[in-house]
Amino acid sequence: MDLSLFPAQAVLRWDLTIRVVLAIGVPVALALILQGSYVNALAIGLTAVMVSLSSLGPDIGSTRWSVVAAVATPVAALVAGVTSQLATGGLLFVFLAYTAFGACAQAGIVAQMAWFPVATFGLLVAVVSTGTPTAGFVAATVVGSAWALLLIIVVPRLVNVPRLPIPLEATAPNTALLRSMLTRPSLRAWGFPLLLGSLSAALLLAADILTGGFRPYWAVFAFASVLGPIASKTRASAGQTVLATVLGLVLAAVLASLGMSALTLILVCFALLLPGALLMLRNGLLSKILLTPLPVIIVALLIDEDLTLVAGYRFGEYVFGALVGVLVAGVAEWLTQHMGEKQEHRDEVPVA
Length: 352
Known about the structure:
Helices cover 74% and strands 0% of the residues. The chain is an all-alpha fold.
């Protein structure tokens, strides 16, 4: 997409800019002043940033979806941390997260990003978790959600809020459909969500068995994120995802080579997160490039591993997940067409 067509007010949406800066800046500043735990400060800040991103767009900015994200994000962190300790490698979390993602997709809420904080933060916790989350960590995620809600309420009232233009088809989620799926569940309504959750969990289980316990959460995320309505769309999305991952990892390596302190490096990555989120619905390639450094660098810092190793895992898993997504989309499309042709053939058979 031609970036010259991207409206200036989207980049200058000051309410979101201020909220993201305060979301991470205040907890880190307090940790510095009070000499508190940086882990809990980052948990508060990252939770607040993720919940803040749920308010992107004209519809999703309503209070109800911000509350949903504020409740679901710490719950996802807790469930991801606990289930990642299971021998199956967190299958339960992956199944639940992507079944919910499929339900949201069916109701047209994916573009609204109500699922984005839950899946992203949950998977990040699952990747870096080396033990069941402590009470302090869980409390930090709850504080981060409450902090984000306070910023969502207060900041827009203090600044002139230009809105982020979003394609028309992305602004009309069918919440009535989602409500009926929850109150009157049926196999037909839940077929796609359950298929997506099951395939995602199966991908994780297969990798677990073949590698003796390796947990490719990023592969699952890539698999779910590249799926499109038709196989050709999935192939295009997979190609874009792999390219963006390569360029994003190069960007992460450049940032890491500048000799900044760990805290400065994380803050720079958060600064890239904002335009990356704003561009998500306008320029997917650039958005993914800017969003890649943060999780890679945070994982490298938290598990005390070399960035090259973490980046290699990230790239390998994303390629693997994208290829699985292409394969699944192609097979699903072939089966749909094949079954449709069989049905048409039966319909053409004259009745005696």
